[in-house]
Amino acid sequence: MTSKRKQYTAAFKVQVALAALKGDKTINELGVQFRVHPNLIRDWKTVILQGAEQLFATNLKVDTTAQFESQKAELFEQIGRLKMELEWLKKKLDHSAEQYRALIDADHPELSVRRQCQLLALIDRAYITNQLLRANVEPRELTPHATYQSRIYD
Question: Around Cβ 104, how many Cβ atoms within 10 Å?
């Protein structure tokens, strides 16, 4: 019967390694106290000592700031796109299915016809197909399930 390997959380590893770094107790005593093999404690202590230099490196702070700024810009872009879609959708609410089809703006600069249909919860394949054919795009090229879609569009 095989037993499952015990996995320790990162917080627990840090706690044990810092206790080892203090030097108040031997690694064997810490092993008994935390119920961990002394070799693991030694390895965790080594990892902390090797990684300590990186904690104070200035490049790490700059990289984190640049990464944060790029993520922030991406999120602001997404917020802007969602606001624009919400405003467009508010203008188009409370209509029948025929009126929804009339609301679709094929020449909208930022919203594709497909996205407009999704926002309106309108799945009108005929309308989308007509728009794609006007743009000289074969509908089968845009669908992941070509065999199913070929039956629809043929």
Answer: 20
3-class secondary structure, 133: helix
Contact between 104 and 130 under an 8 Å Cβ cutoff? The reply is no
Alpha-helical (H) ranges within the chain are: 10-22, 27-34, 38-55, 58-92, 97-103, 113-119, 125-134, 146-153
Token pair listed for 45: 């202590």
> What value, to the nearest 5°, has the Cα angle with vertex 23 and ends 22 and 26?
135
Instruction: Summarize pLDDT for 46-61 with one digit per residue, the tens.
Output: 998 888 877 776 565 6
DSSP state of 141: G
The residue written with tokens 């845009």 in the block is 142
d(CA 60, CA 36): 32
Coil, helix or strand at residue 8: coil
Query: What is the residue type of 114?
Result: R
Q: Which amino acid is at 139?
A: P
pTM of the model: 0.38
How confident is residue 150, by pLDDT bands cut at 50, 70 and 90?
Answer: very low
Quote the CA–CA distance of 70 and 146 in Å, as a whole number. Answer: 37
